[in-house]
Structures are given as C-alpha cells and as structure tokens.
Specification:
By secondary structure, this protein is α/β, with parallel strands linked by helices. The protein has two domains: 193 residues, 2-enoyl-CoA Hydratase, Chain A, domain 1 (Alpha-Beta Complex); 47 residues, Lyase 2-enoyl-coa Hydratase, Chain  A, domain 2 (Orthogonal Bundle), CATH 1.10.12. It contains ten helices and ten strands. It is globular. Bound molecules: ligand T3D. Ligand T3D binds next to helix 2 and strand 6. It comes from Fictibacillus aquaticus.
Length: 257
C-alpha cells in the first residue's frame, strides 16, 4: 500500500515504520504524503489506541532527504505542506504516540521523535540537531519541543553545536523516557505500547491536550481546563469501569470510550 513507510496493527497498537533504510529513512515528498495518510488512519481507527513510529534498518530517520532538495526550492513550503501538518497531527491525536528510536534521529528526524508523547530509545539510538551542519536552523518543531524537554541552555547547546547525543546522554538530558538494550527493544516497545493501549484512552487524550496547552496558559486557565477535562472524563465509560473495578476489587477492563 505504501512505498516509503509501512503501516500495520499489532493488538491495539498501530505501527508506522519509516522505510527508506538506504537513505537512513530520510524524508522525501512521497514519505510526507504517506505519513499524513498513515497518521490519519491511526487517528480515525477506533480499534487503534496507541501509535508507534519507528525506523527500518540501522537508523530512525536522517531528516530531509538532502539528495532530493530541488535547487531553489522554497524550504518554508516543504515545512508548511509536509513537516508542520505531520507534527500537528501527532500532537493533535488524542491517543498516545510512542517514538521507538531504533538508531540515529537527525535533523527533522529528531524533531519527529521530540513531537511524540513518549520516546523509547535502543542503546543504538542517537540524536543530532544536524541542521547547523548544513547551515540551517532546527525546524519541524525542534525549537518548540527541545527547550521544553531539556531546558533553554541545553537546547541552545544542542541546536547550535549539532553534536551527537548518544542514548545514555539522551536519557540523562531528559530526551527519552526509557533506554533499553538492542535485543529487548522491540519487545519493550510492544509491551509499553500495548500497556498504554489498554488504558483509558479518552483520559490519556485529555491529559495530552491540556498538558500541551498548559505551556501557553496561566494558572486560572489551567484550572478551568482541568475542570472541563474532568467533566468529560467523569462522563466516560472507562471512568465507570474504573470505579466499578475498584469497588469490586478486580482489574478494570477499559474500552477507550
Ligand atoms: O531541506 C529542506 O527541505 C528543509 C528542511 C530541512 C529539514 C532537515 O532535516 S535538514 C537536516 C537534514 N539531515 C541531515 O543533515 C543529516 C544528514 N546525515 C548525516 O549527517 C549522517 O548520515 C548521519 C549522522 C545521520 C548518519 O551518519 P552515518 O555515518 O551513520 O551514515 P552515512 O554514511 O552518513 O549515511 C548512510 C547513507 O545514507 C549515505 O548514503 P550512501 O553513501 O551509502 O549512498 C548517506 O548519503 C545517506 N543519507 C544519510 N542521511 C541522508 C542521506 N541521504 C539523503 N539525505 C539524508 N538526510
């Protein structure tokens, strides 16, 4: 169905695998279109309650395909039509999105990883704000997510120097949630994603929506967001199930509704 990515469901989790390994899964125009379609599919399929994004081969993603940039191309066009909608679709998806960082994440590949809700890194993973090495500035959301994850000073250092951050450093700096061995990587990602996919999806979506809004809001606004979110969550089937399971001293079985 797709040429540059693969899309499959495993249990209640959808998996998107960037699949141009000879180019370290660099983005080209086709991949932008296919990512948009795959993310949309994962968002609208009610049986999918978590999304994993990973890469085929030894890399996660090396960012924009530098061998396909047409001379005189308007980069803002590529961002506005390709990367920006993709980043917004990930952030706007009211389901957990996990980036399984199997290898190097460079340039916009790093930005893609940072836009996800969780990052699980293999010990082979690394992160490079590679833009500066080709005279560019971080894009596709890096200037937004990077300082929020690592703080302003570290963000400045990583963006300006473009040094490679290895997996252990990424964990230390707060770029990744979990660091796992290469051999356990897929199993760890599957287990984590399926765990999330069996949780109260509506509540997770609300947490995601309002945590993201909290950065641009004052306390009064956040208190009101919480009240609105709690009304919606409080009327959900999963809340009823959670309460019943607690009172009946059994494990809850959430449906995401
Ligand atoms: O342009 C616009 O539209 C504006 C938007 C920009 C967004 C961006 O993402 S700009 C930043 C683009 N990305 C980069 O600058 C990273 C370029 N790649 C690298 O620096 C290195 O490849 C890595 C550090 C990621 C990995 O290094 P290494 O030594 O492990 O692998 P390698 O040998 O450099 O790469 C392996 C192959 O992949 C190689 O091809 P070959 O020689 O085997 O035929 C290499 O050319 C290719 N490759 C790697 N990255 C890209 C790529 N080909 C096209 N585009 C790439 N980004």
């Amino acid at each position: 169905m797709f040429e540059t990515i693969s899309y499959e469901t495993r249990g209640k989790t959808a998996w998107i695998t960037l699949n141009r390994p000879d180019k370290l899964n660099a983005f080209n125009a086709v991949m932008h279109k296919e990512m948009a379609a795959a993310i949309k599919e994962a968002g609208k399929d009610d049986s999918v309650r978590a999304l994993v994004i990973t890469g085929a081969g030894r890399a996660f993603c090396s960012g924009q395909d530098l061998s396909e940039s047409p001379e005189g191309a308007d980069y803002s066009d590529i961002l506005r039509k390709g990367y920006n909608p993709m980043i917004k679709a990930i952030v706007g998806m009211e389901k957990p999105v996990i980036c399984a960082v199997n290898g190097v994440a460079a340039g916009a590949g790093m930005s893609l990883a940072l836009a996800c809700d969780f990052r699980i890194a293999s010990e082979k993973a690394s992160f490079i704000e590679a833009f500066i090495h080709v005279g560019l500035v971080p894009d596709a959301g890096s200037l937004y997510f990077l300082p929020r994850l690592v703080g302003h000073a570290k963000a400045m250092e990583l963006a300006v120097l473009g040094d490679k951050v290895n997996a252990a450093q990424a964990k230390e700096f707060g770029l990744v949630n979990k660091l796992v061995s290469e051999e356990d990587f897929v199993m760890e990602v599957e287990t984590f994603a399926e765990k999330l996919a069996h949780m109260p999806t509506k509540a997770i979506g609300l947490i995601k929506r309002y945590l993201n809004k909290s950065w641009e809001s004052d306390l009064n606004e956040v208190l009101e967001f919480e009240a609105q979110a709690q009304k919606i969550a409080g009327e959900s089937h999963d809340h009823q199930e959670g309460l019943a399971a607690f009172l009946e001293k059994r494990k809850p079985s959430y449906t995401g509704k």
